[in-house]
């Protein structure tokens, strides 16, 4: 996970619209393919909620398989390895390992949708000038929202590979809420030497394993959103089991193609830790309320008004 921007448009006002759209589309395609392919390693910093985190990343691609290794460089020691649909999180200080089966890759940031026409309904895309990140030349792309219901993004894409080397996310006041940037980056001719190898786990470590692919299941349509913010549609509706409860939590995901808000619906929540009202961390906002005997909690990288709107629109079909 990890993120994005702000600056003056240098080229957007002088490039014909058709040429601009074609240029942005080519960069989106380049970014999309490079995010999950190629071999590289580097160090990046991630700033959010007045906290700075540094991590080292190694990425390998071979015969259609993807391997990703992440290691924290400050704060709590931890490692994360993703390969073959399995995510292994190692916490040396706690002698703990968590293993989860997952059905999707782990992006650092929201990838730009390939459908630029759909994206353009709610965002204005502008090709900015060039800049340097981690001693590499980059192309800067600004994704500016057309209303206050979503955040804006600024991407610095490596000119040679299309990889995202820096990304900022900002609100309607142009205030940067999150910032991710590589400080060093190296593109490799082959996968890192540690890639695609069996993860070594010390014998004295406790192992927690959950097979998400088997435990997740499709949910019914009893819960729905009565009125969504313009552009947002339901993209996922699943049931997630709770480790300490027999009941499952229903998750509804709403997205406009870039911004995404998840709504969790839990029955009979009496814990004092349940969310009543709102809270935020960086660009992530959450809003919770009780609806009958169910707790409804909406969480997403979107403005608070959008998250609150979606949470309050949830209804139970009689």
Beta-strand fraction estimate: over 45%
**Topology-level CATH name of the largest domain:** outer membrane lipoprotein receptor (LolB), chain A
What pattern of helices and strands is seen along the backbone?
Answer: HEEEEEEHEEEEEEHEEEEEEEEHE
Shape: globular
- How many beta strands in the DSSP annotation? 21
The CATH class of the largest domain turns out to be Mainly Beta
Largest sheet: 12 strands, mixed
User: How are the strands of the largest sheet arranged?
Assistant: 7-8-9-10-11-1-2-3-4-5-6-12
Judged by helices, strands and strand pairing, the structural class is mainly beta
Number of domains: 2
Helix fraction by DSSP (H/I, runs of at least 4): 10-25%
Rounded to the nearest angstrom, the distance between the terminal CA atoms is: 38 Å
Q: Rounded to an integer, what's the Rg over CA atoms?
A: 21 Å
CATH architecture of the largest domain: Clam
Uncertain parts: 1-21, 104-108
Mean pLDDT: 80
Number of helices: 4
Give the helices and strands, then pairings:
Layout: H1 17-35, E1 39-48, E2 51-62, E3 65-72, E4 79-83, E5 86-91, E6 96-101, H2 116-119, E7 123-133, E8 136-145, E9 152-158, E10 164-170, E11 176-188, E12 206-211, H3 212-215, E13 217-218, E14 223-225, E15 233-241, E16 248-255, E17 260-267, E18 277-281, E19 284-291, E20 294-300, H4 304-312, E21 314-316
Parallel strand pairs: 6-12
Antiparallel strand pairs: 1-2, 1-11, 2-3, 3-4, 4-5, 5-6, 7-8, 8-9, 9-10, 10-11, 13-15, 14-21, 15-16, 16-17, 17-20, 18-19, 19-20
């Amino acid at each position: 996970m990890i993120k994005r921007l702000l600056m003056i448009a240098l080229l957007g006002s002088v490039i014909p619209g058709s040429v601009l759209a074609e240029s942005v589309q080519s960069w989106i395609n380049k970014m999309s393919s490079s995010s999950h392919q190629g071999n590289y390693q580097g160090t990046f910093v991630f700033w959010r909620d007045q906290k700075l985190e540094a991590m080292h990343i190694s990425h390998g691609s071979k015969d259609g398989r993807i391997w990703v290794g992440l290691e924290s460089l400050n704060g709590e020691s931890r490692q994360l390895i993703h390969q073959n649909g399995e995510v292994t999180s190692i916490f040396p200080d706690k002698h703990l390992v968590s293993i989860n089966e997952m059905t999707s890759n782990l992006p650092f940031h929201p990838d730009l949708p390939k459908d630029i026409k759909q994206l353009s309904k709610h965002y204005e895309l502008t090709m900015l000038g060039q800049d340097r990140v981690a001693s590499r030349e980059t192309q800067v792309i600004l994704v500016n929202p057309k209303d206050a219901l979503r955040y804006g993004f600024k991407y610095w894409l490596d000119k040679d590979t299309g990889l995202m080397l820096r990304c900022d996310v900002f609100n309607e006041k142009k205030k940067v809420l999150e910032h991710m940037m590589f400080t060093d980056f190296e593109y490799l001719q082959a996968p890192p030497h540690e890639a695609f190898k069996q993860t070594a786990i010390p014998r004295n470590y406790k192992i927690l394993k959950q097979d998400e692919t088997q435990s997740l299941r499709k949910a019914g349509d009893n819960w729905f959103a009565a009125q969504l913010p313009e552009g947002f549609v339901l993209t996922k509706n699943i049931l997630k089991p709770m480790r300490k409860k027999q009941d499952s939590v229903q998750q509804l995901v709403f997205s406009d193609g870039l911004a995404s808000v998840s709504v969790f619906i839990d029955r009979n929540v009496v814990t004092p830790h349940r969310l009543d009202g709102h809270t935020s961390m960086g660009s992530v906002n959450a809003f919770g309320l009780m609806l009958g005997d169910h707790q409804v909690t909406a969480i997403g990288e979107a403005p608070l008004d959008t998250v609150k709107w979606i949470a309050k629109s949830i209804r139970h079909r009689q």
